[in-house]
Design goal:
Helix content: 25-40%
Largest sheet: 5 strands, mixed
Oligomer: single chain
Bound molecules: tetrahydrodeoxyuridine
Order of helices and strands: HEEHEHEEHH
Length: 136
């Protein structure tokens, strides 16, 4: 897929951020991605009184990917309440790697070239590493 609907993804990510549940940090995060079927999937961060149980927007988005029957993420936009792109946290980079791999494109804002997940998570450990390393 070469034509990424970045403007649509930004709109969807902002709408998802508006639905975040973030009463503790007050950082409202929304994520939107186009997947292999062409569908747009979204997620919001969902915090918890037990802080460590918080779900990042990207994790919610991966759940939506499976819900719509998609398998691969192609391009992703993550925004905070101020509408500017934010960098996925380290845990989310690994979660995204499972479903987008090194070529997943990450929005950096209008007029700025997207980054690849390879750039954000170089030398990643992923599904391809398991078969060759498992003891028989
Ligand atoms: N957050 C995300 O949703 N995604 C990220 O990649 C960075 C952090 C959320 C988690 C928490 O609810 C809030 O931002 C502040 O850390």
């Amino acid at each position: 897929m070469t034509d990424i609907p970045w403007a649509e993804l930004r709109r969807a990510a902002n709408a998802a951020a508006a639905r975040a549940y973030a009463p503790y940090s007050k950082v409202h995060v929304g994520a939107a991605a186009v997947c292999d079927t062409g569908a747009v999937v979204v997620g919001s961060n969902i915090e918890n009184a037990s802080y460590g149980l918080t779900l990042c927007a990207e994790c919610s988005l991966v759940s939506d990917l499976r819900r719509v029957g998609g398998t691969r993420l192609i391009a992703l936009c993550v925004v905070a309440g101020d509408s500017a792109p934010i960098a996925p946290c380290g845990r989310c980079r690994q979660v995204l790697f499972e479903f987008g791999g090194r070529d997943l494109l990450l929005d950096q804002g209008e007029d700025v070239a997207p980054l690849t997940l390879e750039q954000l998570l170089p030398h990643a450990f992923g599904p391809d590493d398991l078969p060759t390393r498992a003891n028989q």
